[in-house]
Specification:
heterodimer; A: alpha/beta; 8-stranded mixed β-sheet; B: 6-stranded mixed β-sheet
């Protein structure tokens, strides 16, 4: 049974697209056929992070409007042949998406794919709404600061009341917390909320903590999902997250400031 | 002539008040979208044209008011009259709606407390509950039990819960959330949002919570914002009640 995962946050700039690219790649590398969809119509970015921006012919809106087939629009990833990208349109806006159209495309993808990752735009308006509406699981990406936490809280309220599962009285969406750009040093200095602070406010299942890392920016610039940088701390953090999502029991890392020992042990940069 | 009769005969009784019960359909509004309303209303009427023909009707505004929708009473009346129905009253209106309704010569009735409380997921459709009995003022001593609303999921920022009776929440209430009850409010976790108890004027309503970090607390309209809460009242189990129009925050001492 295919699972639809939405990567969402409410707030912008917290790492939704980085996360979408990383977990989609992680799932595909573990042998699951995965599609990742950019819902940010008008502000398309996923293709850059995935390094396929020069191969975009048709996009999500073309498929919704029946101007192209799904197979024409899906781009196969150059690093993993089980991963496909459905880019957003850059020349349109969010009104080009319709609930009926999105539902139709997801149903079609479900026949062929094991996981469908929906990269939500920021905000709580139409684009974000459609990205989460059909979801089975939600990855709520949060930075350890108050405004991001509050926006995530708002998004969680929307997930539990406005999604298809909520409207049809089905089992609720599984909600997971991903804490990104985490810096144990700054937490220690009191400049950043700790994992416990965030957990206290959101009371949500923590899927993983991604440390603030130069490797994320390097990965974005080079168009390779950071999870492929196996030596980097952020890459390993995402690898853990994918494993935990698939049911593996892995201890949390990158929460405490343990210089040296852990880094040597895991070969992190 | 009438003067004559007054002089000579005992006075003729011209009128008498009696209490009588009628069955009147009640229109429960769930949307303020008048064109949607008009469309669905005419569909309903088509199903039983004889039943609805020139029927009196009470319009219940509770559903839309809970959702915070605004509705123009004059336009609403137009839509309903156009459908061939006669409005004989508005129920559960707010102060402004009642004022407007009385100005147009239509009686107003308070909210019916027997209704089960509706929590967040109201469908946006017109529901015709018919016929239910309108209770005459004299026979109002019927004992009514108002159900308690129980919520086990966290109330997230931006969510709004309204309970016609007591409200019991077994999970946290986030900052930016709003919980409102006509009765008492119990939060068996952290209260960070706004909590308003006794909103229909019940000054005996109380708020209980395990960990007070609220943005605002209010009982029967008497409120305090977070800034007014003294530090010694925060981050612990408390109960809040009204005494001489002043909100009292008192520790709940747990006996082990």
């Amino acid at each position: 049974m295919a699972r639809v995962i939405v990567v969402t946050s409410g707030k912008g700039g917290v790492g939704k697209t980085t996360t979408s690219a990383a977990i989609a790649m992680g799932l595909a590398k573990r042998g699951h056929k995965t599609a990742v969809i950019d819902f940010d119509v008008g502000l398309r970015n996923l293709d850059l992070i995935m390094g396929c921006e020069r191969r975009v012919v048709y996009d999500f809106v073309n498929v919704i409007n029946g101007e192209a087939t799904l197979n024409q629009a899906l781009i196969r990833d150059k690093n993993c042949n089980l991963l496909y990208i459905l880019p957003a349109s850059q020349t349109r806006d969010k009104d080009a998406l319709s609930q009926e159209g999105v539902g139709r495309i997801l149903d079609e993808l479900k026949k062929d794919f094991k996981f469908i990752v929906c990269d939500s735009p920021a905000g709580i308006e139409k684009g974000a709404h459609l990205a989460m509406y059909f979801a089975d699981d939600a990855f709520v990406v949060t930075n350890p600061e108050v405004s991001s936490v509050r926006d995530s809280d708002r998004m969680l309220g929307i997930l539990s009341s406005k999604s298809r599962r909520a409207e049809q009285n089905e089992e609720p969406i599984n909600e997971f917390l991903l804490l990104t750009r985490y810096s144990p040093e700054r937490v220690k200095l009191g400049e950043m909320l700790s994992v416990d602070d965030v957990q206290d406010i959101l009371s949500l299942h923590l899927l993983g903590v991604i440390p603030e890392s130069k490797s994320v920016l390097n990965a974005s610039n080079s168009g390779t999902p950071v999870i492929l940088d196996e030596k980097s701390d952020a890459g390993q953090a995402y690898e853990d997250i994918v494993a935990r999502y698939l049911g593996e029991d892995r201890p949390h890392r990158f929460i405490d400031d343990k210089k040296g020992f852990f880094r040597n042990l895991f070969g992190g940069k | 002539m009438s003067q004559d009769s007054k002089k000579n005969k005992p006075p003729v009784i011209a009128l008498e008040f009696k209490t009588s019960s009628f069955s009147v359909p009640v229109l429960m509004l769930a949307t303020n979208d008048l064109s949607l309303l008009e469309q669905q209303l005419s569909e309903k009427i088509k199903q039983a044209p004889d039943f609805f023909k020139n029927s009196p009707l009470v319009v219940d505004l509770q559903g839309i008011n809970k959702q915070g929708y605004l509705v123009n009473i004059t336009e609403l009346i137009d839509v309903i009259r156009k459908a061939g129905l006669f409005i004989v009253g508005f129920r559960a209106g707010n102060i402004l709606q009642n004022k407007e309704s009385l100005r147009l010569g239509i009686p107003v009735y308070p909210a019916q407390s027997r209704e089960p409380s509706i929590v967040s997921k109201e469908q946006s459709k017109v529901e015709i509950v018919s016929p239910i009995e309108t209770v005459s003022p004299k026979s109002e001593e019927i004992k009514v039990t108002i159900p308690t609303t129980l919520i086990t999921q966290p109330i997230r920022s931006g969510q709004r819960i309204y309970a016609a009776g007591d409200l019991v929440i077994m999970a946290q209430v986030s900052a930016g959330a709003e919980i409102i009850a006509e009765g008492n409010i119990h939060v068996y976790s952290t209260l960070r949002g706004r909590a308003l108890a006794g909103v229909q004027g019940n000054i005996d309503a109380r708020i209980f919570c395990f960990d007070l970090q609220a943005e605002l607390i209010s009982i029967a309209g008497n409120y305090k914002v977070s800034e007014d809460l003294i530090a010694s009242a925060r981050n612990k189990p408390v109960q809040i009640y009204l005494q001489d129009k002043a909100l009292i925050i008192k520790d709940i001492v747990l006996h082990h």
